[in-house]
Structures are given as structure tokens and as C-alpha cells.
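Incident log, structure service

09:12 report received: a user says their structure output differs between two submissions of the same chain.
09:20 pulled the input from the user's history:
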Amino acid sequence: MGTPEFSVPMLDSIYNSKYDLVGVVTVEDKPAGRGRKISKSAVKQYVEDKNITVLQPKNLKSEDFLNELKILNPNLIIVVAFRMLPKQVWSYPEYGTFNLHASLLPQYRGAAPINWAIINGETKTGLTTFFIDEKIDTGEIIDSVEIEIKDEENLEDIYNKMLPKGSDLIMKTISLIEKNITTAKKQENPDHLKKAPKLSNENTKIDWDQSAKSIFDFVRGLSPYPLAWSTIKRGEEKILCKISKVRYEFRDHKLENGRIEIRDKSLFVAAGDGFVEILEIKLSGKKLLKTKDLLNGFELGSGSRMLW
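09:34 re-ran on a clean worker, output below:
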């Protein structure tokens, strides 16, 4: 059971293994884009030319879907980036249902674990397989693998690291379950539990009162998608912008946080304890540009600043 591109390498590993893949469950096809063309999930696209049963239920509790599931009669369900399952689904298979989550549980339960680990300046993250239960991301842990987060790595870098490791972890977990040698353990409840809420317009906005390093981590945790955003105030004009790459420097200054400073065709923004240099930026309605290219035809007066 899965939907996005992240699920596909794991599905491919299962499909090309010795195990019998009896079916795939994914979201319904939906109209998308300006032309409202019908869009299929990455998982649906993967299985289209393969002789695999595909189910696309609107309601996971519907009698029709539950009957279809019984016809497939899986003895194990594997979930990678799908919806929350009702108990009558996850409890159906003989060997249970396990999920692959993109963090080292119990930390970063939620919809955007990769993003928030980077945003919070973590030096490591990982992947965890666990048996699904009634709550979200709280079930007994089967296995996990750690992944290093280097200083310059962004969301895309960590995502790409996770794909092969996720496939390996999925196959290892299936093997452990098959051989009945899992030592699934209850999740601990640490004093400080870090969450990974769904990304929204509100929590992807840059706070220029934060430290320069915190803003750097925030930007790379949202790059290349959905991108951190801010608003440039140029005179009376306000221009929405998205920022995909920055550098930072610690330096004392007496500028108001958010104040823009231009140095040799480079754009710096004053932050809590230094400056953030914006390297790549996208103005509303425009394409993503290197800041040096933007400044060739975009004037910023001495009073320009970032709002938040």
C-alpha cells in the first residue's frame, strides 16, 4: 500500500523478489494541473504494465474494499507512504501489517519526518519498520537503520539516501517476519518527543528573528520542495518569494532583523546573530534564479527588507 514516488523503489524490490505480490493498493486517479488531466499515483504508474491487481478505494472501511481484500487474501501487508488504515484492514493478515517510516521512531512521528529532522538541525535520521496499531506511528518497532545528515545536505539529498536503504530494510523486515525471528519492541516515550507535522503555508515561512544557522537549516529542510518562503518589502511594494539555497555567517550587526544588504551583487539578510546570504530565489510568478542573475535586473533600495 503506497502512493508517491518514495514508495516505488520498495515496491520494485518486492516485485522482483521471491515473494508473491498479490496486489497493490493506492489512491484514486485524480484530475490535476491547469488542464485538469487525470493524474495517477507513482505506484499506479509503476504497476500499469505488470500483471498485478490494483485497488484504488475511496473508503478503506467500505464493504466493497474489504471484500476485495479478502479475495486477495494477503498474509502480510506492507505500507509505505499511504493513508491511516482502519483496524479491520491492518489486523486482517496472518502476519500483520508493517509500515516503513522515514525517521528513527519514536522521534518525528507524523507526515513530514525528513523535512523536520533537517529543519531541526539533526545530524542523523533514519528509517524504521514497525507493526501498525490503532494510533499513528506508535506500533512495535521491528527494525531500523540510521542515516547521516551532513551540514550541506538538503531534503532531496536525504530522500535519495533513503531510497536504497528503505528497499533493503523492507526486504530484511519481510525476511524476519517470514522466519518468525522478529524481536518487535514497544516504542519508548522520551521526555522530549519531536514531531513532524504536515507542512503548510504557515509553518514554511521564514522567521528572520531566528539564528542564521536555524534559517539555513530551515531552508535546506524544505528544498527543493515546497521551499521556504518570505515577503520582500521594496518601498511600498510587497513581493512574495521562495528561497531554495542559502549560506550563513555569524557576524555582529546593528541592523534590524530582516533588513536586506547588497554586497557585490550578493544578497544578505540580517538575522538573529549574523547574516543569511540568499543564493537561489524565486519571485512570485517567476522561475527559480541564482541571486546574482536576479540582481542584474532587479533593483533593491537601501530600505528593502524581508517581512515575516
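09:41 both user submissions now match this output. Likely a transient worker issue. Closing.
09:42 reviewer note: Helices lie at 8-15, 42-47, 63-72, 87-90, 113-119, 155-178, 212-220, 291-294. Residues 5-178 form a domain with the Rossmann fold fold (CATH 3.40.50.170).
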